[in-house]
Amino acid sequence: MDDDIQDAGEPIAELRDLSLETEPDLYDRVRRRIERRSLASSFMAAAWLVPVLILMEIVSMVFSSFGGGGNSRGEGS
């Protein structure tokens, strides 16, 4: 495997000479961009989850008001 790396050939050597130095703040910009996308993903997940939770709470309130929870008519009914 080391022989493959050592014997890269002419085209690879030409590409090595064309390499550019990365900007010093490249990694910071990439990290900030990933964090922004992660934050946006979290907000989108909450945007889908919160309405579902509110709907479930409303449905449970409706069911409990129609006799799902306790005896609201009296003891003997």
Summarize the structure.
The chain contains three helices and no strands.
Q: What are the SSEs and their pairings?
A:
Elements: H1 2-6, H2 10-17, H3 26-68
Transmembrane segments: 39-63
Keywords: Membrane, Transmembrane, Transmembrane helix
Low-confidence stretches: none
Biggest beta sheet attributes? none
Radius of gyration: 31 Å
Distance between the termini: 85 Å
- Beta content comes to under 5%
Shape: rod-shaped
How much helicity do the residues have? Answer: over 70%
How do the helices and strands follow one another from N- to C-terminus?
A: HHH
Specify the structural class: mainly alpha
Number of strands: 0
Mean pLDDT: 79
Quickly list its features.
77 residues; mainly alpha; 3 helices; 73% helix
Overall description:
The chain crosses the membrane at residues 39-63. Keywords: Membrane, Transmembrane, Transmembrane helix. With 77 residues, this protein is mainly alpha-helical. The chain is rod-shaped, with a radius of gyration of 31 Å. The protein starts with a helix and ends in a 9-residue tail after the last helix. It contains three helices and no strands. It has helices spanning 2-6, 10-17, 26-68. The protein has a domain at 26-65. 73% of the residues lie in helices and 0% in strands.
